[in-house]
Predict the 3D structure of the following.
Amino acid sequence: MSQILACTDGSVYSSSVYDHAAWAAARMSAAVHVIHALDPQKESTSLADLSGSLVADAQQALMAELVALDEARSRVAQIRGKAILAEAERHLKEAGVQKISTEQRHGSLVETLPDFEPSNDLVVIGKRGKSADFATLHLGGNLERIIRAAHKPVLVASRAFKPVNSFLIAFDGGPSAKKAVAFAASHELLKGLNCHLVMASNADQDADFTAAKQQLESAGFAVNASIIPGEPEEVIAATIEQHGVQLLVMGAWGRSRLRHLVLGSTTTSMVRTCLVPVLMFR
């Protein structure tokens, strides 16, 4: 049975993560495994030297208080994590997911992901976490690192879930874009949805683009394919808005302006500003 890994931290994006995971589970006939990672570096108090010019006895007393505070915060974090997982299970059950499992792990999400990825077919994570800077639309640090590390597709949930009837593949001819096309052509997650294939280019034709269109058509899609001049992020954003597309599908690697991994690239700009969920392929 297929399984989806849903990553939660109890942030405002968590409900959307559960809804996107439930949508994917219904289309894939999959179970959902929810993980909450307790990162010691984020949950604990720094035991840096706060003693200044205190005498030895005072330093020892202060350190004992800090250790006790760390232990108390660790207990609270575990209780909070269990409450988050209980809410995740309740939400998923109400969304119709039949098979749900939950797990709390110690360590950062990036560190624990390799333990779970082999047994899961899709990773779902929120665009931003509980420590995100919403004023600057900064992407969650976990998201950036997970997309670097993941070998399975990563579904980046938008702030709120909306029913998905169509998707757009942002194509640039690179290996990860071709992987996205192959996934769409062969996987049940996107079957039956309206398909848009868009390439930002000043050329009238592209052999890889034509091959991608034919691959999707052979899989049964009626493909709305367009090569549009302009910058990728502008072309993709405009097409999504024009056609009311509900899901962006793209690679994290590419051969042109998408050649860099997520950080500092066109990919970052689209993930950060796009209001629809993004299905990403390394």
Remarks:
- The chain is about 40% helix and 20% strand.
- The chain has two domains: 3-41+77-156, 162-281.
- Strands lie at 3-7, 31-38, 100-106, 122-126, 154-157, 166-170, 194-200, 223-228, 247-251, 278-281.
